[in-house]
Every structure is written in C-alpha cells, then in structure tokens.
Write a structure and sequence with these properties.
The chain starts with a helix and ends in a 5-residue tail after the last helix. The chain is flat. It has one domain. With 78 residues, it is mainly alpha-helical. Pfam families: DUF2626 (PF11117). This is DUF2626 domain-containing protein. Keywords: Membrane, Transmembrane, Transmembrane helix. InterPro entries: DUF2626 (IPR020254).
C-alpha cells in the first residue's frame, strides 16, 4: 500500500507538470503539493488500514472542497 502512495505522488507530479506547461500555475502548485504529501506518506510505512483510512479522509476532503467550489464560488453558466 505504501507503494501506491508513491505511485499517486508520481501521477500528481505528472499532472502538475502538464498543468505548469499549460500556464495553469495555481492548479500546478496544488498538484505539486499533493505529490509531495503522497510521496512523504508513502515512505512512512504505515499499516494498510492506516493508508486506507487516510485515503478515505483525503477523498472526503477533496469531494467536499470540489462541491463547495463548484456550488458557491463558480458563476452560473447562463
């Protein structure tokens, strides 16, 4: 499971680099920060249950943040 966190870090780094190449600086910085966090957590060698619980927490925070942003911060399309 620790390897999967390092894989998540790698893919976040790839997405961050592509966003940076596309001049989306804030988006790129967000994914660079996630990449660092995932790689750091990947080398801590927690138990599998701990990794699963951290990932569920990460998903809950990201979905709540996405929902908040899309409902309250984005303008209506019409």
């Amino acid at each position: 499971m620790a390897r999967m966190y390092r894989v998540l870090g790698f893919w976040c780094l790839v997405i961050g680099l592509m966003a940076f190449a596309g001049h989306m600086t804030e988006f790129a910085l967000l994914f660079f920060a996630q990449a660092v966090a995932f790689v750091f957590l990947g080398y801590l060698n927690f138990s599998e249950r701990t990794y699963i619980m951290m990932f569920w927490g990460y998903m809950a925070v990201s979905f709540i943040g996405f929902t908040y942003w899309s409902v309250f911060k984005m303008s209506l399309p019409f």
